[in-house]
Structures are given as structure tokens and as C-alpha cells.
Design goal:
The complex is a heterodimer of chains A (157) and B (254). Chain A has 157 residues and is of the alpha+beta class. Chain A is built from three helices and six strands, in the order ααββββββα. In chain A, strands 1-3-4-6-5 form a five-stranded mixed β-barrel. Classes of the chains: A alpha+beta (157), B mainly alpha (254).
Chain lengths: 157, 254
């Protein structure tokens, strides 16, 4: 019942194959990591890592209280942040349902000379937390009493 | 000549005998069928109808009760297929190759379900059916790997050679599994991080994750059931000349 040396060698060859492909793949992925990232963070943009006038994606949290809507068009302006740096985003169009201040988004567009990101697509990024509405209602009520009425108050019901 | 001290347990070698596997799987089959039916119907009913709606996504988050089990299974089955294939190569067990072969199409089906439900979920929440982020792209690669394994397995008629060839492709392909798993941590993705980990509390309340746990367990039972049925069919196909099979109550009684 002892493991035959021949079998053990085969097992070692298979493990070697697995480790070998693992090392190769991780090196390739490490080399390509800048291309695999879906978006540039506000810090990347502030450090000049993002190219100007090229179609790129920028992602971050919509800063609380930064959303300004035009009264005569669908134009909006808001600030995305990674809590280190901030980037202004201009967008014309309909925002996704889950778009709200304090929520993550990924925008596609181009960066102009003024450092404003002109977006033509905005995607909402939700996190891994799920909660029943009753729990958040209590939180929201406390929040609403403390500061100005949040823009998304009617959605939280 | 090195004397190895690694000793495989007795049941491991018994599993390699078609007759033993046929008998054992015949006994196990009804249990997995009942468990799969119970867990899936209980979990689905609870998750889809009774669990509370999400504070942000409303009812659309419920697709998670189909999406998450399908995604977990698509990855687990690939690993299972590679392990079975490796056992087939090392211990020359025909049954292991049969088990690996049985895994292919059910794994591919779960991957397809995960991709489709993900697209349906993505539209109302993110605003897009598809984005080329690392999680989505690596899962699409998984579907292509399953397609490659399937094509290779069917292209070779000699079962033993087909088993070896597919096993090697499956073993090399498992490198994609940690990439899928950790894609949301290693790179910026649109897909959210996992709500579950072994070290932390789930990031949702019990009335939301309990149904999910049930559907995940139910899906595992369904997978085992399908693999048992398909492996038994292959045993019947390849052992049709064997006298033990002729005398078996399942076959002679029919």
C-alpha cells in the first residue's frame, strides 16, 4: 500500500507543472497590472499617471455635498475622491439608479488641461454590504436630523 | 530507490474500482437527490420571496441567490475536475477520468449561469450589462477553458488518452481560479469584493445570508448528484462486457 516511486514522481511532475505555470502567470499579470486595472484612482490622476485627452476610466467615491445639477439640462458636476485626492467630473446624461453621494462610481471619458474629467458614461459601483431597509432607515433618520436633507432621501424609504 | 512513506487510505483505492464505485454511488445517489431538492427549494423560496429587500438595490439584489452559488460552483467544479484528472494520471484510475469528464458540462453550465445572471444584475445596479474588468474577464476565460476541455475530451476517442490530455489542460487551467477569486482585491474592478470570508463576519445580516448558504450547499449536492449519475452511465458504457455489471440488480432487473 506504500506509494509507488513512479506515482510519486508523476505527482511531483504535476505539482511542478502547476507551480511553473503559476509563476509564469503571476509574472505576466504583474507586468500587465496597469492595463488590468479598470480605472485610475484620483491619486493616480493627481500624480499624473493618467494621460490627457485619451479615453480612460476614473473611479472613486462621490464626495458628499459635491453634486451640482444644471437647472436647464442634464449636465451634472461632482467630485470623486479616494480620501487623499479629488477629481472634478463633468457629465451630461442620465445617472444610474444607484448613483448617490458617498457611493463609488466608475466614469469613462477623458481628462482635460484643467484637470476636469469629462465623462460620457457613469457606472455605479456598489459595495459588498447588504442591509434590510429598516436598518438603514434608522440610520438615515438620525442623519437627516443632524444635517440638511440628503438628496437621496426619497430613495431610502 | 526511495521508499516513500506516503500511504493512501484504503477507500481511496476502492474508489478506483468501477464495481465498488458503481455500488457506492448507487447508495449515495438518493441522499444527494433529496438534499439538493430540499436545500435548493428551501433556500430559493426563502431568498427570493421572504428575505428582506436591500436598502439600496431593492429587490434586484435577490438574483444573488442564483448568481453566487453558480459562480462558486463554476470555480469549485474546475478544481474538482483537475484533482480528479491528476488522480487519474498518478494512480491510473479510469474512474477518476470518468469523474473528471462528468464535471465538464455541469461546470460549464454553472459558469454560463453566473455570467448571464451577472449581466442581468449588472444592468440595473451598475448601468451596464458587461464591463471588461478583471473579475468578469477572468470568468469569461473560465468559460473558454471549459469549452477547450470539453472539445479536447471529445476529440480523442481513446478514453485513457483523452482523460490524460484533458487532465493536463484542467490542471494548467486551475491557475485561473485564484485569479478569479482575488481579481477584486488585486486590481480596481467594477465588481464588488466578496461579502464572505473565513476570517470576518459576513457583510449582510443572517436573514440575507442564510438563504444564500442553503442555495450554495444545495448546488453542491446537485453537482455531486449529476456527477454520480454521469459517471455511472460511463461505467455502464465502458464495462458493458463485465460480468459483475450483467449480474447487477440495476441492470439485470431492468
Amino acid at each position: 500500500m506504500l506509494m509507488h516511486p513512479k506515482r510519486r514522481n508523476k505527482l511531483l511532475i504535476i505539482l511542478g507543472l502547476l507551480i511553473g505555470t503559476g509563476v509564469i502567470t503571476s509574472l505576466v499579470l504583474y507586468a500587465l497590472s496597469q492595463n488590468i486595472n479598470l480605472f485610475f484612482s484620483p491619486s493616480d490622476i493627481a500624480q499624473g499617471k493618467a494621460p490627457l485627452h485619451q479615453r480612460i476610466r476614473a473611479g472613486g467615491m462621490v464626495r458628499e455635498g459635491s453634486l451640482i445639477r444644471a437647472t436647464d439640462s442634464l449636465k451634472v458636476r461632482f467630485v470623486i475622491t479616494d480620501f487623499v485626492e479629488n477629481v472634478k467630473v463633468d457629465y451630461t446624461g442620465i445617472l444610474p439608479d444607484l448613483f448617490r453621494e458617498g457611493q463609488g462610481i466608475v466614469a469613462q471619458g477623458a481628462l482635460n488641461e484643467q484637470g476636469v474629467f469629462v465623462a460620457d458614461e457613469v457606472l455605479a459601483k456598489h459595495d459588498e454590504n447588504y442591509m434590510p431597509p429598516e436598518v438603514t432607515q434608522a440610520l438615515d433618520e438620525a442623519h437627516a436630523n443632524a444635517v440638511v436633507v440628503p438628496i437621496d432621501a426619497e430613495f431610502a424609504k | 530507490m526511495t521508499q516513500s512513506s506516503w500511504r493512501m487510505p484504503r477507500w481511496f483505492h476502492q474508489m478506483g474500482s468501477p464495481k465498488w464505485f458503481y455500488d457506492f454511488s448507487g447508495k449515495m445517489q438518493p441522499w444527494f437527490a433529496v438534499l439538493a431538492l430540499l436545500l435548493l427549494s428551501w433556500g430559493m423560496a426563502w431568498g427570493l420571496a421572504f428575505a428582506p429587500a436591500d436598502y439600496q438595490q431593492g429587490n434586484s439584489f435577490r438574483i444573488m441567490y442564483v448568481h453566487v452559488p453558480a459562480a462558486i460552483l463554476s470555480q469549485s467544479i474546475f478544481i474538482g475536475m483537475a484533482v480528479a484528472g491528476a488522480i487519474g494520471i498518478v494512480w491510473k484510475m479510469k474512474v477518476a477520468f470518468m469523474v473528471a469528464r462528468s464535471c465538464i458540462s455541469i461546470g460549464a453550465s454553472f459558469t454560463l449561469i453566473a455570467l448571464l445572471t451577472g449581466a442581468i444584475w449588472g444592468k440595473p445596479t451598475w448601468g451596464a450589462y458587461w464591463v471588461w474588468d478583471a473579475r468578469l474577464t477572468s470568468t469569461l476565460v473560465l468559460l473558454f477553458l471549459y469549452a477547450g476541455v470539453m472539445a479536447l475530451n471529445q476529440a480523442i476517442t481513446e478514453r485513457q488518452i483523452a482523460g490524460k490530455a484533458t487532465a493536463i489542460l484542467a490542471i494548467v487551467g486551475t491557475i485561473n481560479i485564484p485569479i478569479i477569486k482575488y481579481s477584486v482585491e488585486w486590481w480596481n474592478t467594477l465588481h464588488q469584493a466578496s461579502s464572505f470570508s473565513l476570517t470576518q463576519k459576513p457583510s449582510m445580516p443572517a436573514e440575507m445570508y442564510m438563504p444564500l448558504l442553503l442555495t450554495v450547499l444545495g448546488s453542491y449536492c446537485l453537482f455531486v448528484l449529476v456527477v454520480l449519475i454521469r459517471t455511472r452511465t460511463q461505467i455502464i458504457e465502458t464495462q458493458s462486457h463485465a460480468s459483475w455489471l450483467m449480474q447487477h440488480k440495476d441492470v439485470s432487473g431492468a
